[in-house]
Amino acid sequence: MQMGDALQRLLRAAHSGPFGRRAAARAGSPRILVVGVCQGAAVARAMRYLLPEAEVTTISAFHLRRRFRRLADLVAEAGRHDVVFANTYLPAFPDGGAGEFHAAAAVKLLPTVVFSAFHPDQVRVGDLADPNLKGLLTGPMGHSHSALALFGYLEGLSVDATERLFRGEVYAGLGYLDGWDGSVLGQRTLGQEVGWDLDAEIRRWALRGCFMHCDNHPKMHVLSDLARLALRRAGIPFTDCDLDSYLPDDQGEIGCWPVYPEIAEYYGVPGSALFLSPRSRRLGPARTMTRRRFLDGAFAGYRSTPSSQLVCERVAGWRADPETRGYLRQAAGLSR
């Protein structure tokens, strides 16, 4: 599909039919729409506090296909608002995708925050290419898994032997203490992809310690900063306030991966061996669990999953490299 043809069709559809008519009355001003992943929803919450007279609506990018049959319908909904912000992720529609939506709705893009230095053991298992995330394996921490746990299971190690891998010597041997520069570079790139320079923000966030609940869920003060920056970049004036005090950080309910104690000591931040499971229909309310309980749950899930679906590039690389595989097996108390 050519971008020009797709845009013309979307714009024609957006200005016709019930979706194309603006409401006669305006409930708030400005009317802001935020289409995004979990981070986008939190940015919208911060905007509501900064703009008490505005109408700020958020739509989850993961639920768009349930609500809108066509991309043209989403474009029409965007047309009901004065300003549209969005993360880069958007599921594909029969009549277009992210590029067409961003152009047709004059979207102002929000950067996604991903920073793995504090949580280097966190990985995803399954088909990462599935745009709707349906190919990812769910475990006791939702879509997040431990590379060490998966390695132990695939190598036939017991839970006890696998748990012996969770120590500082192993973290150092795997390069888990060397991820800061790469994480900064990765975050800088994610900002540049949407035209943002985040260097000053990264430095400020780091001064506050660990600013991530897990590798892709930042703490609320980070998302509050993004809300302020987004409004300034859009030319929308607001009255600032102490969002740290006004706005509770409930991002941890999406799941909080612990900063392993030895990694926490290295970075000089608080650490823990307790995992906070995400709140969901399947898992129930958010709750903490010990590392042993996490490993028991992870192994149970892996046992009930076809081996062809236990796919993780990092773990596959470890197992394919005789030196790394032998090192980890020896660290678990087995012979190479």
Strand order across the biggest sheet? 2-1-3-4
Radius of gyration based on Cα positions: 22 Å
Q: Give the overall pLDDT as a whole number.
A: 90
CATH class of the largest domain: Alpha Beta
H and E order = HEHEHHEHEEEHHHHHEEHHHEEHHH
How would a textbook summarize the main sheet?
4 strands, parallel
- Report the strand count: 10
- Distance between the ends: 53 Å
Number of helices: 16
Nutshell version of this structure?
The chain is α/β, with parallel strands linked by helices.
Protein model, in words:
The protein is of the alpha/beta class. It folds into two domains: 1-20 and 28-110 and 216-248, Rossmann fold; 122-177 and 257-328. It contains 16 helices and ten strands. It has a four-stranded parallel β-sheet, covered by helices on one side. A two-stranded antiparallel sheet has the order 5-6. Strand 7 (212-214) and strand 8 (217-218) form a beta hairpin. The model is unreliable at 17-26 (pLDDT under 50).
